[in-house]
Amino acid sequence: IDRQTGNRKVTAPPPPSNFSHGIQPSSHTIEAQILPCIKCKENVAHIIYSHASTPGEIEDTYRMMYSKLSEVNLPTWIVGDQNSITGQVLVLKSWPERLDAPKWVLGNKFDAQIRNLQGSHCSQKKEPQYQ
After folding, report:
1. Are 62 and 51 in contact (CB under 8 A)?
2. For residue 58, what are the contacts with CB-CB under 8 A and spacing of at least 6?
3. Residue 52: how many CB atoms within 10 A of its CB?
């Protein structure tokens, strides 16, 4: 008891020198790429690369990245690791609208879809009509 204040002082013993609380610092680096139109170089797609191999892991990446999706505001896909046996990747179309659950697609088909988006961007623009 402290004589001046009347408060009780409790001192904990110091932790042993080999003490560890078992919590590791949390740090995630998630790779992403913004892809331009082949002709005009305007940004047309956003790909987020996840090391996910299950739908649940893709969903986790979606939740972690949601605020960035709205900032970038481009059509966005989250792509997991490729299955070395089947050649498939787990993909989630996540922005501007999330239409489906994560699904397995052939990696080369997904690549072709993205290249098509990059190549057809300018042809989808409509020229202003002057009267």
Report:
1. no
2. 50, 52, 78, 80, 90, 91, 92, 102
3. 21
Q: What is the pLDDT of residue 124?
A: 63
Distance (Å, whole) CA 113 – CA 89: 13
Return the pLDDT at 109. 93
- Residue 116: both structure tokens together: 């098509």
Q: Is the distance from CB of 72 to CB of 45 less than 8 angstroms?
A: no
What are the start-end ranges of the E strands in the chain? Answer: 31-36, 43-49, 76-82, 88-95, 103-106
- The values of phi and psi at residue 107, to 5°, are -55, -40
Maximum distance among all alpha carbons in the chain? 94
Find the mean pLDDT for residues 32-58.
90
The residue whose two tokens read 């939740």 is 63
Q: What pTM did the predictor assign?
A: 0.71
Neighbours of 44 (CB within 10 A): 21
